[in-house]
């Protein structure tokens, strides 16, 4: 059986990856399975354990790291996030296409493990626009705003390393651009078989 395609979605924080991810996952042509990350971040009210994330304790997370169960992991805003290896490998081995959403530093280790994965970096329309979005989204937490803006600036410096950079002028257009590239890649792989 042909292996499934692993798609990685990344970009500067608060750039709107979540909306693009939801559109990609809902698309019937792409049939993407979401790679559910482990995190030590507390669950938000609208989130479901085992669907949005596996919400785990620091101790459980440390166990996963120690046992080499994560393809990659990172610390973000005081919490740990990691991509479970077994889940991605199982789905891909069954011919399923997998979508992994990570912050930018997570992409390198995934690419090393899965060199034929397809990564997309989502850029904001402008740096000013992103700063505005971050300030709006985290307006109750001054310290978090400047931390996130600094992190976003660092992340944007990674963009030139990506072959597929998509500007998020509006979520729908970026989704359509990414969808077209994924379908193209799927077609290419079919022809190579
Ligand atoms: P949030 O707390 O807003 O759900 O996620 C914070 C950031 O962590 C987002 O940029 C998201 O893409 C990233 N993230 C989620 N899961 C993972 C993961 O497994 N690994 C890495 N490196 N980043 C992740």
Question: Can you put this structure into words, describing what you see?
Answer:
- The protein is α/β, with parallel strands linked by helices.
- The protein has one domain: P-loop containing nucleotide triphosphate hydrolases (Rossmann fold).
- 43% of the residues lie in helices and 22% in strands.
- The protein contains seven helices and nine strands.
- The protein has helices spanning 17-26, 58-66, 85-93, 107-113, 127-137, 142-156, 171-192; strands spanning 6-11, 32-34, 37-39, 53-55, 70-76, 79-84, 97-101, 118-123, 164-167.
- Strands 2-7-1-8-9 form a five-stranded parallel beta sheet, with helices on both faces. The protein has a four-stranded mixed beta sheet with strand order 4-3-6-5.
- Helix 1 packs across helix 7 and helix 5 (127-137) runs antiparallel to helix 6.
- The termini are close together.
- 32% of the residues are buried.
- The mean pLDDT is 93.
List the helices and strands and how they pair.
Blueprint: E1 6-11, H1 17-26, E2 32-34, E3 37-39, E4 53-55, H2 58-66, E5 70-76, E6 79-84, H3 85-93, E7 97-101, H4 107-113, E8 118-123, H5 127-137, H6 142-156, E9 164-167, H7 171-192
Parallel strand pairs: 1-7, 1-8, 2-7, 3-4, 8-9
Antiparallel strand pairs: 3-6, 5-6
Guanosine-5'-monophosphate (5GP) is lined by residues 13, 17, 37, 41, 72, 74, 76, 81-83, 101-103, 106.
């Amino acid at each position: 059986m042909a292996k499934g395609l692993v798609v990685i979605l990344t970009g500067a924080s608060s750039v709107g990856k979540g909306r693009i991810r939801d559109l990609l996952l809902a698309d019937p042509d792409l049939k993407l399975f979401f790679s559910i990350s482990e995190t030590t971040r507390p669950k938000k009210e609208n989130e479901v354990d085992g669907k949005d994330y596996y919400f785990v304790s620091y101790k459980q997370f440390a166990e996963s790291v120690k046992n080499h169960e994560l393809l990659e992991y990172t610390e973000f805003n005081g919490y740990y996030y990691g991509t479970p290896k077994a889940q991605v490998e199982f789905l891909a081995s069954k011919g399923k296409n997998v979508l992994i959403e990570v912050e930018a530093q997570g992409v390198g280790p995934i690419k090393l493990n899965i060199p034929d994965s397809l990564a997309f970096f989502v850029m904001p329309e402008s740096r000013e626009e992103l700063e505005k979005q971050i300030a709006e989204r985290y307006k109750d937490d001054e310290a978090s705003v400047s931390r996130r803006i600094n992190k976003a600036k660092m992340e944007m410096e990674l963009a030139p390393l990506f072959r597929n950079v998509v500007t998020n002028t509006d979520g729908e257009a970026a989704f359509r651009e990414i969808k077209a590239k994924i379908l193209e890649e799927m077609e290419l792989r079919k022809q190579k078989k």
